[in-house]
Each structure stands twice: as C-alpha cells, then as structure tokens.
Amino acid sequence: MTIKPLIILPDPVLRQLSKPVETVDADIRRLADDMLDTMYDAPGIGLAAIQIGVPRQMLVIDVSKEGEDKQPQVFINPQILRSSDERSVYEEGCLSIPDYYAEVERPATITIQYVDRDGKQQTVEADGLLATCLQHEIDHLNGVLFIDHISKLKREMVIRKFTKAAKTRGAKAI
User: Fold this and answer.
1) Are 57 and 71 in contact (CB under 8 A)?
2) Binding-site annotation: residue ranges
3) Which residues are listed for Fe cation binding in this entry (predicted)?
4) What is the pLDDT of residues 134-154, one digit of tens each?
C-alpha cells in the first residue's frame, strides 16, 4: 500500500464537503488500505479521506491500545443517527493540525450507520474514545475541524500560527 501526504491546516481542502461513495469496489478498498497505512505511519487513530485530498465520505479508525493487536475499521458514508444528551470531554489532536491539542466536549454516545469495506450496511453504537474519534472524523467529511469546537480566540491563534508556517513553506491558505 501507499502512504499518502497529509493535508495540513490552513489548506482550504480541509473545508471541502466530501461526496458520498457510490460503489465499494477495488479502488475504494485500495484507498482504505492507503488511508490505514497513512494513519498508522503518522501515527494516528483516525483519518478521513479529505485529509489526504480525497473528498469522499470515508474514514478509517483504530482505537486499539498500544501493545494490542491492530483493530482497523473502515467507515464509508457514515451518518450519525443518534447522539446522547450526556457529554464527554477528550483532549483531541488532528493529523492535519500537528502538535496542537485541545479539550473538546461532544456527545458521550452515538449511533452511526455506515457501509463497511465489503459494501454491507452496518449500524454501531459507540461510546468513549471510539465515539469521540468517529465524531471528529465525521466532522472532517463536513469541512469541520476540531478547532471549530474551541473558543474563537484559541481557534484564531491556531489558524494564525499555521497560516504563518504555511507561508514559510509556500502553501495555500484558507
């Protein structure tokens, strides 16, 4: 498989809306494998296709603990069906916003519907780290970043920092 370059803030690609995957075929499964290789190499626990420049509703996750066997999961066209009123707070980071972390409050439990890598419709109820990770990655599919869930002041500071770094690299800005 292939490790793909990550799209980094402030690249406007991160704000694009992802389109549904029409058919789960060999190309989509290859993309899933490339996304998993990219995520593991980074290293991270979740990756949306848009983070490698592919605007498709697809994400990969592995929330297994260090020392455990890998448990890669592929979610195609994921949709949140239900969210709990109960909230939880996790310190989140993002492969597209390297070395920045912030506490984000989200629903503690969610139920999602998605298509798996075999093209079969699935439903899963998630809590804990999996629920947080799924919400974070589904946000990416809608052009939303985890920094959109923190205070405006902190968000603007992060965007300024990454915009300045991008200018130094000669990258595109939001």
Assistant:
1) no
2) 94, 136, 140
3) 94, 136, 140
4) 999 999 999 999 999 999 999
